[in-house]
Amino acid sequence: MMKLNRRLWIGCGLIFLLGLSIYFANNIFLSEYQFLDFDDDRHISSQVLIQHPNRSNLARIWLEPLNGLYIPVTYSVWWSISRFLGFYPVFFHRVNVLVHGLNGLLVFLLLLHYLGRWQREKRGTEEGVLGCAFVSTFLFLWHPVQVEAVAWISEFRGLLGTFLGLIAILSYSQQKSGTVETSPVQKSVSPGGASRRQEKLQAARRQSERGRFWREWGSGLAKREWTNLGFIGGTCAFILALLAKPAVAIIPFAIWVFESFCFRSHSQIDSNGIRRRMWLGTWTVLAVPFLFFTKSLQPDSSLAWVPPLGARFFIAGDTLSFYLTKLLLPFHLVPDYGRTPGMVEQRGFIYWTWILALGVWIGIWRIRKNHPILCGVILSWGLSLIPVLGWVCFDYQRISTVADRYLYFSVFFWAFGLGAFCLENG
Q1: What is the Cα–Cα distance from 137 to 103, expressed in whole angstroms?
Q2: Cβ-Cβ contacts under 8 Å for 424 (sequence gap 6 or more)
Q3: Rounded mean pLDDT for each run of 10 residues along the chain, 426 residues in total
Q4: Rounded to two decimals, what is the model's pTM?
């Protein structure tokens, strides 16, 4: 009976979140808006392939990059909207809102999983997880920095990439836990032994685990995983996410860091640990070519001032500090901040704004053992932004290095942090 009630509450919550998001977003600020002259014209309103949605134009969408991007999945959805619903901005806006609501559902399910896992590891129960997942999902759905991604038609690529990426993560997270297999070296460690002997034994254990991991990689366990429907489905979703927005390529690395800091069981060398490494490793290998290909479509020569390699560290620090400020104090949000690399250098921001980001990273590293959740949330949040921090030049830096829409997926990690805080202090 308890399981039935739990499923009923979850189902009601999913429907509530989706309906509320669609209703308010559609009726408050989207239904009367038109296409913008800011990217919408390049991608949709003046794009012949979308204005005339015939089969030959659909083939061109998949055969050639458009506007410095190769995102055929996104363009195919726009093509479908134009062909089957009509070339009217209201339909494009409503699809944006719908996908944002679906992303809220996926985030809710992921938070149920991750908060439940964290609560089981810490207290051996899942009490309070459902309510905290609700609260955290609202942070993802309604944080002010999310408005730009939902209201701006062109940023549908970010919404769709996040949707497909979340499906991949959800598929990855639903693996069954394996039985922990303790190596002989681990069993021989004596709590009362000398510290030097313990260090040697731990080093031997790590080496044994690494060797065992690579042996398992080629064993029947790993080979069976290649035909696992969950793995195939998750990998297909991740590939489609890359074809919707290449910046999601960083997701496997961000999730690995997130789980490494937030969950003790992540480091276990068991069958489940082998699966985790295999899934994330495979996705990382698939993502690298997409990053190089996208960079080849956006040469540095498109920028008025190309920052030298040494200056990019400070630009990335300025970007992180800016985003951290906007997340904590979401005021004066605008679609164009004009914060180009040249502007940051000319006004002297490059010399001091990075200090905040560096201070935060040093601080969380020093408290990583006592506050692993905080450390994991901030590190994974920062790593998820790597493609758009300014380490590597990208086309939109002609207008601004920073934009609210780049934060869209990364808010998920803050949502988990809020849920964990509520569980800890509830």
Answers
A1: 10
A2: none
A3: 54 65 62 80 91 94 92 97 92 90 91 90 82 89 91 94 96 64 40 57 60 52 62 93 95 92 63 73 92 88 83 93 94 92 90 91 86 91 94 90 96 95 85
A4: 0.86
